[in-house]
Amino acid sequence: MDATFPCSEDIMSDLPKDPMMLVSFINTELRDRFPNLERFAKAHLVDEEELKKKAALVGFEYDEKLNRFV
Band of the pLDDT at 14, cuts 50, 70, 90? Predict the structure, then answer.
């Protein structure tokens, strides 16, 4: 594997570990760069359902109409 190409573990490690910080980061990305959570997850090589589970730990759920966690 090319040492300059990040593996999915490297990319996941770039996402905030704290669930509140993760929700904040995702919402900012959704507002500024991504039309939906699916595209965000694919771009960051993470599982969309796993993101939803982590957000639910701190009381958030994804609202498709608003394209954000509320």
Answer: confident
Q: E-strand spans in 1-70?
A: 62-63, 68-69
Q: Are 34 and 48 in contact (CB under 8 A)?
A: no
Scan for tokens 């960051």, then name that residue: 44
The first and second tokens of residue 48, run together, are 């969309």
Predicted TM-score of the model (pTM): 0.81
Specify the DSSP element, H or E, that contains 43.
helix 37-43
